[in-house]
Structures are given as C-alpha cells and as structure tokens.
C-alpha cells in the first residue's frame, strides 16, 4: 500500500518496498486547470498546439557529500554519464492519464560519491502553478510496478517551480524526503540555489 506523503515527511524506501530495492521510477503527472465552465483555463491548451500550453519539466540533480552538483538529468540531458539515471523524455502538455514524465533510477548503479538525488518540477513555459491541477510525484518500485509513495503537489500559487523530493543514502538504505518547497525559475539552473538549503 503506497504512502501518501505529507510535506516534510521522511520514509525508508527500502523498508516500504519490503526489502531489496534496486530500481525506482519517479513519475510526475499534472493536468491543465479547467475554467469554471469546464473548459480549459487558457485557449489552445494540451493537444491544441496553442502557445499557451503548460510544459512542466521534471529534473533530477545528483549531489555529492560536499553538496556539489555531480550531474543533472533533465529533458536536455536524458541520461547520466554512468547510466544510473534515465529521463524517459519531455511531455509538453500533461495530456492523458498517468505519469506525464518519468525518471528511472537504478539505485545500485548510482556512484558511491553521490549522496542525494533531488527531484524538481518547473514550468518551462513560465505559467504559475495557479494554472495547474492534480499535480503529483510518485515513487514506484520498477521490479513489480508497485507504488511505494505518492506526494500530491497541492500548493497552487504564483510559483513556477517546486522542489519535490529528495532521495538520499542513510547508511545502507535509501530514504525519501518529501520537500514540497515552492520555487521560481523556468529551468533547473534557476532552481539550484533554492535546492541547497534542503541538502
């Protein structure tokens, strides 16, 4: 049974997955907020090809023991050099059910020098989270597709990004911390200074 995480909550991924956890999938999903009449909030959205489409981007930043960036995996760099982290590709609309973007992590291949993986989401097209609803991130055990934990990104507001969660080493296990801090910026580069206090 998946855990619905609250902001600030920490869990052991290994324990929640029932022991041996080698490969996880961080899934991100969202929908365009609908207007009061049931239509889209803005014209030409999601499959309509209009210029107002919201493009949320998931990213994963690898940090070492000194809180230095080792590498960033995002839509412009889909695979880490060591092959342990793979972004499945950019979704520019959020249309359809299920995860809109996924980042796959092979935990046993993540270099020992990497202590934390921070997952973020940012609005590349610049709209605020007031235009988004039903946004979430979830952690899935890749071996059986079982959902381990889910964090609902319920905070609507004028922010254009969110630092979602951190997956980090604690002894010989991996833990997850639901951060849920609002941020600003269209790209992961804009978010990096905002991530550092959470390491």
Distance between the termini: 28 Å
Report the strand count.
12
Biggest beta sheet attributes: 6 strands, mixed
Give the name of the CATH superfamily. Answer: sav2460 like domains
Which CATH-level-2 architecture? Answer: Sandwich
Radius of gyration (CA) equals 16 Å
Described by the principal axes of the CA atoms, the overall outline is globular
Write up what this structure looks like.
The model is unreliable at 40-51 (pLDDT under 50). The strands form two sheets. The chain has a six-stranded mixed β-sheet, with no helix packed on it. The chain has a six-stranded antiparallel β-sheet with strand order 2-12-11-8-4-5. The protein has helices spanning 13-16, 188-195; strands spanning 3-4, 10-12, 23-32, 56-64, 69-73, 85-87, 101-106, 114-123, 132-141, 146-152, 161-170, 173-183. By secondary structure, the protein is mainly beta. It has a single domain, classed as sav2460 like domains (Lipoxygenase-1, Sandwich), CATH 2.60.60. It has two helices and twelve strands, in the order E-E-H-E-E-E-E-E-E-E-E-E-E-H. The longest helix has 8 residues, at 188-195. The protein is globular, with a radius of gyration of 16 Å. The two termini are 28 Å apart. Strand 9 and strand 10 (146-152) form a beta hairpin.
